[in-house]
Amino acid sequence: MQETKISIQEAFKPDIAQEMSQGSSCSESEPFALQAIDDSMEPEFDAGCIIIIDPTGVARDGAYVFAKDNQGEYIFRQLRIIDERYYLAPLNDLYETFEISGVKQIEGVITQRAGKKRSYHKSYY
């Protein structure tokens, strides 16, 4: 079996999403997996780890989320809610925290982390 990889930008283009939904039994509310590609969420999520995202999960302060940033790009960060304002924060201090308009920018909540070793697996919900 050959592995197929596509970028997040390609995966979420309307035409790709439509094509996938037409030939698949998956729905928009089903969890899906992505791979962390940088060190912005280390040490909790190493670059290369697999994260499971639940698009129906409830985003609370401190939750790890898959969201759109203010330029419409997909990003994986920790949600911080301070004085009714919403922020996406990295765990690695080398990256910036930024404010978003609210929960409408959140596409899903990270529910699990997986890796090559069983000891690395962790649930967040």
TrEMBL record:
Q: Which SUPFAM superfamilies match?
A: LexA/Signal peptidase
Residue ranges that the Swiss-Prot or TrEMBL entry lists as coiled coil: none
Signal peptide region: none
Recite the lineage of the species: Bacteria, Pseudomonadati, Pseudomonadota, Gammaproteobacteria, Thiotrichales
- Annotated Peptidase S24/S26A/S26B/S26C domain residues: 27-108
Q: Tell me the protein's name.
A: Peptidase
InterPro entries documented for this protein: LexA-like (IPR039418), LexA/Signal_pep-like_sf (IPR036286), Peptidase_S24_S26A/B/C (IPR015927)
Q: Do you know which CDD domains this protein is assigned to? A: S24_LexA-like
